[in-house]
Amino acid sequence: MSTSSDAPSARRLGASPAGPGRGLELAPFAGVRFSPSVVGSLEAVTCPPYDLIDEEDLGRLRAGADHNIVQITLPRDGHEAAGRKLREWLANGTLVVDGAPALYVYEMGGPRFLQRGLIGCVGLRDESERVILPHENVYPGPVRDRSGLMEATRANLEPIFLTYEGGGPASDLVDRVADGSAPVLEIVSGDGTRHRLWRLEDDGTVADDLRGRQALIADGHHRYAAYRAFQARQDGPGPWDYGLALLVDSLRYPPHLGAIHRVLPALDPQEAVTRAAEAFKVTPLEGGLARALAELEAAPDGLLIAGSGCRLWLLSDPDPVRLAAALPPERSERWRSLSTAVLDGLLISDLWKITPDEHSVQVVHDDPAHAVARASRTEGTAVILNPLTVPEVMALAAGGERVPRKSTSFGPKPRTGLVMRLI
């Protein structure tokens, strides 16, 4: 799998390896896309991002189209098998490489939303340079998994999601392309969202506008950490100094910020509530989930506990002494007031005595009903949270702090398999 024409290198971009003072960079690349003449429906071979796919979805996707990209992003038989599958699809024409590097204008739209941005290769930066700002911590397991998949496939399969405060010529160019020309790709996914893609051979407008700007990692912290880990294992500058990203102007297309709820399959909900009562006010709730969510929204410091049989409790008014002892003293007051910090530090670690990882504490993006249903199936406990706000997240990131792991669900997220990148 050659890298000479498939991805940007420091030499071809006319720049030194990623280093201080170079600012935000989004470079063109030769996109890899499914051939409709081979696979037929592009909707059938693309899918949501890997971390939004649960076991039920995974089984359905694997049983569907023969060439669904989930066979590579979530391989049944390990990373090496995914690499062989990718090379097979490239060899037999299932996947084709665009003939020349470009940026890609990407649009997602539905009845009540529209998002546009640019897909390209973002120059990787050390956090100390304050160019690409993470706002969330990561679990080591998923980073190892995504890094291993990248190593085996020599590809960026899914763009991370970056936002920046734009309003400049790059954003104007994105809108002109989307409003004034026919896309190279258009599909409607199963949830009714329309996805469109255009090739853009930039004349320098994007590069000039982005220079000196900062970007926030909205979604994809584990993949960005995997980019950096993969880069660190290489010898010298090269295409590994870049990673696939969708960059969205948050001023023109403000992202949606939802909550990420928790499911603890090994924790009995009645036991969870009994232990929580040591440091929280516990209020049993009647009237179903919709009413309970309204009660949660009205309680800024509230957490909603749910178990099988529609049992629901609101936790509020955490004991300030127990809270101060459970949370890191070096953190800012803003950080210590986050619902996810209270959940992780006081509730999960201190009161429930659970060491969190991707197995003991599962996550569900946005959908509280899905979290409650999963907890019921496992006879475990769901914790439903209010979403953080964009100003909270931005203020913490600007101050050099990160929210606890899996605190935010920015969206809408790009669909996987529309365009990929070989390293």
TrEMBL record:
It comes from the Bacteria. It holds the Pfam family DUF1015. PANTHER family: DUF1015 DOMAIN-CONTAINING PROTEIN, LMO2823 PROTEIN. This is DUF1015 domain-containing protein. It comes from Actinocorallia aurantiaca.
